[in-house]
From TrEMBL:
Keywords of the record: Cell membrane, Membrane, Transmembrane, Transmembrane helix, Transport
Family per similarity comment: Belongs to the drug/metabolite transporter (DMT) superfamily. Small multidrug resistance (SMR) (TC 2.A.7.1) family. Gdx/SugE subfamily.
UniProt cross-references to Gene3D superfamilies, sorted A to Z: 1.10.3730.20
Membrane topology according to the record: Multi-pass membrane protein
GO biological processes: xenobiotic detoxification by transmembrane export across the plasma membrane
Protein name per Swiss-Prot or TrEMBL: Guanidinium exporter
Annotated organism of origin: Pontivivens ytuae
Length: 105
């Protein structure tokens, strides 16, 4: 169940980052509210995951998956550039997340 909580927490991490961008510096009400709710729920589910998972695994995976999702959505939804360095960095994050997951087996 901890891994499911961690996955849900990561989705809220991505939602938080994207809605913060759409809030335009917290000047738009709806995206600002989404940001606040996503932060609270993301941390809540991360905390639930860390009841079982070590912090040295849960937190880096949460931030790593959040980073991956945000980079990909920035590219797909916001027209941000996908450079060679971003692709190499994405590969490094995926490798790190996989290594952390394997370390708990």
């Amino acid at each position: 169940m901890a891994w499911i909580f961690l996955g849900i927490a990561a989705l809220f991490e991505i939602t938080f980052a994207m809605s913060m961008k759409y809030s335009e510096g917290f000047t738009r009400l709806a995206p600002t509210l989404v940001t606040a709710v996503a932060v609270i729920l993301g941390i809540t589910f991360l905390t639930l995951a860390m009841k079982t998972l070590p912090v040295s695994v849960a937190y880096p995976i949460w931030t790593g998956v959040g980073t991956l999702g945000t980079v990909l959505l920035g590219y797909l939804l916001l027209g941000e550039q996908m450079t060679a360095m971003k692709l190499i960095s994405i590969f490094a994050i995926v490798a790190g997340v996989a290594g952390l997951k394997i370390s708990t087996l």
